[in-house]
Amino acid sequence: MPSRCEIFCEILIAVLIPPLGVCLRHGCCTIEFCICLLLTLLGYVPGIIYALYAIVFVDRDEYFDEYRRPLYASPA
């Protein structure tokens, strides 16, 4: 589970560049990243709202596997 500092940094990045914040949390080429990228291209504010939702509320452990592990995750 990520620490509060990691979550805060992801939220800060998500406000500045929404797809990058989602990419750090869920990885690139995931459905969350694609949706966030599309919403950011259509409008900056919807991209921010979805990025915050994807970072805070979507449980990444449900989709977690060894090949899509984020960079900061410690090995089990």
Automatic annotation (TrEMBL):
Which Pfam families would you find in this protein's record? Pmp3 (PF01679)
Q: Which domain of life is it from?
A: Eukaryota
| Compartments reported by the entry | Membrane
Tell me which GO cellular component terms the UniProt record holds: membrane
Keyword presence, Nucleotidyltransferase: no
Residue ranges crossing the lipid bilayer per the database entry: 35-58
Question: Which terms are listed as keywords in the entry?
Answer: Membrane, Transmembrane, Transmembrane helix
Question: Which PROSITE patterns does the entry link to?
Answer: UPF0057 (PS01309)
Family indicated by similarity: Belongs to the UPF0057 (PMP3) family.
State the name under which the record lists this protein. Answer: Uncharacterized protein
